[in-house]
Each structure stands twice: as C-alpha cells, then as structure tokens.
Amino acid sequence: MTAPLPPKRMSLALPPLTVSLPAPEMKVLEDQTQDQTRSIRMRVGSPREAATLIVYVETELSEAVVNGHALPGRRSGSNRGWMLIYFAPPKEGIDLLLKTKSSEPLKMTVVDRSFQLPELGNIKGRPDYIVPMPSSYTDSTFISKSFVTPKAF
User: Any idea what the Cα angle at residue 150 is, between residues 149 and 153, rounded to 5°?
Assistant: First the structure.
C-alpha cells in the first residue's frame, strides 16, 4: 500500500515589484507639558482611505484618548509598547491624544491596511476561478511609516 500524496496546490507567482503608494500620515496638533505629564494631540490618517489603521507606540504611555474616548490602560507588568487597531477610520483620520511622563521623543509607527492589492498597470490580479488562500491577510496591502516627535522642553 502506498501513502497518498498531498494535494497539489495551484499558485500564482510574479517577481517582486516596487509600487509607490502614499504612506499613512500623522500631524501633531498640540504638544504641551504640565505637571511632568506630556500631552501630544495628533491627527492620524490614511491618504489611501485604508480600511484599518494600526498605531504602535514604543514610548511608555500613561493615558490614551481616541476621538474623545479614553482607552483602558495596559495590564500591569506589561513592558511592551502600546498598540491601537482602528477599523473603518473616517476620511479625515482619527484624533489621538497620548500622555506620557517621559520627555523623550515619542516614537510610533502607523500602518494602514486595505483589503485589496494595488493596481499594477498591465499585471492582472488573481483569476476569478482561483479561490484565495483562507487567511485574513490574503490580498491585503500594508503601508507603514514611522514617526518621531521632538523631545519635550
């Protein structure tokens, strides 16, 4: 008796391509320090109008407010950075207020995610008769940009 072979998978592959797409944006609207707490209010958005914004902050935060709503704090003992996943952001972006006890520069990365691949001119997408791989990342486009605010004075 012979063992059955695994089913053959059909896949499409192309050489790597470079595509120029607009990166997420972050604009500091206000940066002030009071009683050793630095408050940085910013507008974060996607010029591509991506379906999801992901914000990673390396700096330790004491408070975070999104569109006027305070977010719960981190679990005690956690030494990882802070992360926000915002689904269906408005075209104008989200208002983000971050508070920290640190006067060091605020380091953050913003990633926007759309659920389709970019138009690539003469390259056609997956044919209709091929089912995409069952994964939440299939056919997604991720664009990231890192930001550093100046040190507080």
Answer: 130
